[in-house]
Amino acid sequence: MGKLAITGGTPVRTKRFDPWPVYADGEKSALDDVLTNRNWGGQPFPGKHGDAFAKKFAEFHTAKYAQCVNTGTVAIQAALKAIGIEPGDEVLVPAYTWEGTVGPILLVNAVPVFVDVDPDTYCIDARLIEEAITPKTRAILPVHLGMRFADLDAIMTIAQKRNLKVVEDCAHVHGGMWRGKGAGSVGDLGAFSFQSSKLMTCGEGGAVITNNLEYFERVQSYINTGRASVTDKFKHRMIGFNYRLGEFQAAVLGPQLDRLPKQQQIRQANIEYFEARVRTTRGLGFLKPEPRITRTAPYSYVLKYFTDQAKDIPRAAFVAALQTEGIPCDGLFYEPVYRSSLFPVKASEFPALSWGRPEPLDLRNLYRCPASERAAYQEAVWFPHYLFLGDKKEIDSIVDAIFKTLDNIEELRGLEHPGIRSQGLSRADRES
Ligand SMILES: Cc1ncc(COP(=O)(O)O)c(C=O)c1O
Q: Which residue's CA is the closest to the ligand 1 atom numbered 3?
């Protein structure tokens, strides 16, 4: 029996962190209002709660317009339609992200082109973008991943120079700001997810924001079965689908947004405290601080673990040990999409992968992105945002578990444990 919980010792924590998502009377009364007013359908029509929320959400992100949709994946898809992505167009996207960033590109029969991430931010490496551009490239789809922003200054400069559009995947940055501008309002459009793990949630949902009325109208039509938009200034007519967000979900989002600024302050203060406590710890590293992020929005706290500074104990054992100490966290949270088991892409299903090429593009074997692979398979440790919503004692327990694990790391050498085996698998392939 060792000191670590994973080898039979007493765990640092037995009490669970406060659960996510959170709700209060605001959500309850809004839901009751929808129930009793019988307008349950989705925005744009009748959409009292959806309309009110969309206006507030746009304003909070310094954008003129917002449209609610039923998922974050659809938000990206609608944004790609808004900028006129057509079959065969190429869209640059980071390799290290959730598969839901990439699927929408394929769904509009365009071609995703993977770009490696910057090891300092784990977001798309702007220095690698120009070499990935071809005559077919139409757009860049940066993801503000985890707790950092993609370098929007560099991306917007390239986009202007090369006449490309920019859709920001903002699934992780509700309320975040880059140089005083809201996430999603710097590029042509921003796409948000309200899926249940996100910083604000209604179970499933999404939103698209933009400053461009024409894009806004196209998004409205696309997600509302092709109907004319509310203003219809540009008279676009297109095949659309029912991707509307229902009023029950929209109703929950209002109070969730009201709560966000306070939560943001608590998280930020706790993250600063956490970093101050672990700053000089051998075996750990941080993502580079980014002063251009003027309001943080950490979907997860992302730490780096260096196996070679931790007696060559692999990340899987470190993470499983922390979990057993009572700290929710994950190592293989994302992986390079081209290697993911959730990306069994076939050229027969997505014809654009074959167009104009002697052989169809083999997206699973075409790429090697070293920084993405290192983050995914060796280095990154993701702590969910709700761990940082409590008081300092909660943060101390995370730090205690980290120190305890590193101090007793020899106990993990050669250890067999289901938690360690599970950490070796993609999330989609794990048992629970
Ligand atoms: C980075 C990223 N992009 C896109 C999505 C897709 O959002 P949704 O699950 O709401 O479709 C998610 C969320 O799961 C995500 O994390």
A: 101
- Judge contact between 95 and 115, C-beta under 8 A: yes
**pLDDT tier at 201 (50, 70, 90 boundaries)?**
very high
Q: How far apart are CA 85 and CA 62, in angstroms?
A: 25
Q: Which atom of ligand 1 is nearest to the CA of 195?
A: 10
Any ligand 1 atom below 6 A from CB of 72: yes
- pLDDT higher than 70, residue 135: yes
Rounded to the nearest angstrom, the distance between the alpha carbon of 42 and the centre of ligand 1 is 20
Residue 287 CA to ligand 1 center (angstroms) comes to 22
Cβ(70) – ligand 1 distance below 6 Å: no
Cβ(382) to ligand 1 under 6 A? no
- Of the candidates 262, 235, 202, the residue with the CA atom closest to the CA atom of residue 68: 202
Does ligand 1 have an atom closer than 6 angstroms to the CB of 79? no
Task: Work out the burial of residue 192: count CB atoms within 10 Å of its CB; fewer than 13 is exposed, 13-18 middle, 19 or more buried.
Answer: buried
User: For position 128, what pLDDT does the model report?
Assistant: 98
Which of 71, 73, 117 maximizes ligand 1 atoms within 8 Å of its Cβ, making it the mutation to test the pocket? 73
| 334 pLDDT higher than 70 | yes
CA separation for the pair 227, 223 (Å, rounded) = 9
Residue 203 sits at the vertex; the CA angle it makes with 202 and 206, to the nearest 5 degrees, is: 65
For 204-241, write each residue's pLDDT tens digit: 999 999 999 999 999 999 999 999 999 999 999 999 99
* First CA to last CA distance, the chain: 27
| Backbone angles phi and psi of 285, in degrees to 5 | -145, 165
The HSE-up count of residue 63 (CA atoms within 13 Å, CB side) is 34
User: Which three-class secondary structure state does DSSP give residue 44?
Assistant: coil
Question: Among residues 311, 296, 59, which one has the least CA distance to residue 178?
Answer: 296
Q: For residue 197, how far is its CA from the centre of ligand 1 (angstroms)?
A: 10
Pull the structure tokens for residue 360. 């169809």
Give the pLDDT of residue 167: 99
**Strands 90-94 vs 96-97: parallel, antiparallel or unpaired:** unpaired
pLDDT band, very low/low/confident/very high, at 164 (cuts 50, 70, 90): very high
- Cα gap 432→421, rounded to integer Å: 13
